[in-house]
Amino acid sequence: MMTKDDVALMILEAKRTTGLTWEEIADKIGMSPVFTHSACVGMNAFPPAKADELVKLLALPQEAALVLSESPTKNFAQTVPTDPCIYRFYEIVGVYGPTLKALIQEKFGDGIMSAIDFDMTVTRVPNPKGDRVKVEMSGKYLQYSAW
């Protein structure tokens, strides 16, 4: 039986051999790069039609589409705070952290976003479905040194 980890490894191998970027993969299946990566590494579930498109695009076994559309179990290896607002930020990083890392490194190279040379804004955005919280972060890119 194929697992989400098995499928994630197949996707990463197919991505490497095809030379496609996450943005290109996402564009070809009509989804955002953030959600696409997150679902590819098992932290979200693709809608079945999108899972089928991804499987075709990357020439994966058909069973992979079923796995990609299954709801994930999201386990975090660290103790998280109990304050609901702070907990949600831990949840965001737990679910989307690997995605943010992959997209940053794909665009900039092997490195990180600084939390020292950094700024952040929090804005209220009116929305008919309920006001939205918009958090924007900007940090200097720091490339890892090879030595």
TrEMBL record:
It comes from Rhodobacter flavimaris. Belongs to the cyanase family. One of its GO terms (molecular function) is cyanate hydratase activity. This is Cyanate hydratase. Catalyzes the reaction of cyanate with bicarbonate to produce ammonia and carbon dioxide. The active site is at residues 88, 91, 114. Its EC number is 4.2.1.104. NCBIfam families: cynS, PRK02866.1. The gene is cynS. Residues 75-147 form the Cyanate lyase C-terminal domain. Keywords: Lyase. PANTHER family: CYANATE HYDRATASE. It catalyses: cyanate + hydrogencarbonate + 3 H(+) = NH4(+) + 2 CO2. It is an enzyme of class 4 (lyase). It comes from the Bacteria. InterPro entries: Cyanase (IPR008076), Cyanate_lyase_C (IPR003712), Cyanate_lyase_C_sf (IPR036581), CYNS_N (IPR048564), Lambda_DNA-bd_dom_sf (IPR010982).
